[in-house]
Design a protein that fits this description.
Shape: extended
Radius of gyration: 28 Å
Organism: Alsobacter sp. KACC 23698
GO molecular function: ABC-type phosphonate transporter activity
InterPro entries: MetI-like, MetI-like_sf, PhnE/PtxC
Family: Belongs to the binding-protein-dependent transport system permease family.
Low-confidence stretches: none
Keywords: Cell membrane, Membrane, Transmembrane, Transmembrane helix, Transport
Distance between the termini: 53 Å
Order of helices and strands: HHHHHHHHHHHH
């Protein structure tokens, strides 16, 4: 037997409709207020930063003309018409590009090892002592807050020109960046394996080794590969401050107005970064898939 559907009185329906409209209106007012505050903050930031749209649009043509100039040889023809003249320094640039990759690799390894050790000390679920966790977190914050170029300038003064300042600068900054990511991964693990290992009489290091590391290792490697991509781009500009790599030739070509050399070096850097991105992306996805399927 079919049951009758009760009908609400008209007054109740009107009350529900009015409440719904009031909620929508309140939400719309909050959204408009948020946009107004955002617009005001943008205007204040532009004012303090001395952003002048007139100057920007007035000089925009210089930027586009420079981009067009770097793709022309000295005789005015496009660089693609004479690859031999365009890539005259290919052997030297490839050697410097290899140096750049080594700087990024060593910086990533040094930073990754430091982040690996400090991440467990910075994780809330692995360290009971608040002072130890606080110290580890603040140190990692310092490492990732100071830009790589600032570290590189300091190390250039200390150790002189060459790849070493670039390696140290990238290593310290990588330690801070990866340390935060690693610590967040550790804080989200299942603590039952760690507690089970500790219940057998294992010490803290053994509990981490057999209870925590198997759960986080694939994510650690994935984040490290991602950071290596970032460090390749970072190492490419370390030469701007004399910290080795292909960036030194790039900044020299820019300063001396060797236009075609600028485009050739940029092309090598872009192609290298693209290849590394493709390779490490496949490796990261494979590792993440293993971690999810564990």
């Amino acid at each position: 037997m079919a049951t009758a559907i009760p009908h609400r009185p008209d007054a109740q329906n009107r009350a529900l409709a009015e409440g719904y409209e009031a909620a929508i209106a309140a939400r719309r007012r909050r959204m408009l207020l948020s946009f107004a505050i955002l617009a005001a903050l943008i205007l204040v930031a532009a004012r303090i930063s001395e952003v002048d749209l007139g100057t920007f649009f007035g000089n925009l043509g210089r930027f586009t003309s420079y981009i067009g100039r770097i793709f022309k040889l000295e005789d005015g023809h496009l660089v693609f018409t004479n690859p031999v003249e365009w890539l005259w320094g290919l052997r030297k640039w490839l050697r410097l590009l290899g140096e750049t990759l080594l700087i990024a690799y060593l910086g990533t390894v040094i930073g990754g090892l430091g982040a690996f050790g400090l991440s467990f000390l910075a994780a809330r679920n692995m360290v009971v002592a608040p002072w130890l966790r606080f110290s580890a977190r603040r140190f990692l914050e310092f490492c990732r807050t100071v830009p790589e170029l600032v570290f590189a300038l300091i190390f250039v003064v200390a150790f002189g020109l060459g790849p070493l300042p670039g390696v140290l600068a990238l290593g310290i900054h990588t330690m801070g960046a990866l340390g935060k990511l690693f610590a967040e991964v550790v804080e989200n693990i299942d603590m039952k394996p760690v507690e089970g290992v500790a219940a057998t009489g294992a010490n803290w290091a053994q509990s981490v080794r057999f209870g925590a590391i198997p759960q986080v290792l694939s994510n650690f490697v994935s984040y490290t590969l991602l950071r290596f991509e970032v460090n390749v781009r970072g190492a490419a500009i370390m030469g701007f401050v004399g910290a080795g790599g292909i960036g030194q030739d790039l900044v020299e070509a820019i300063r001396k107005f060797y236009y075609s050399d600028v485009s050739a070096i940029l092309l090598l850097i872009v192609v290298t970064v693209m290849l590394i991105d493709l390779i490490t992306e496949r490796a990261r996805h494979a590792l993440i898939g293993r971690g999810l399927g564990r």
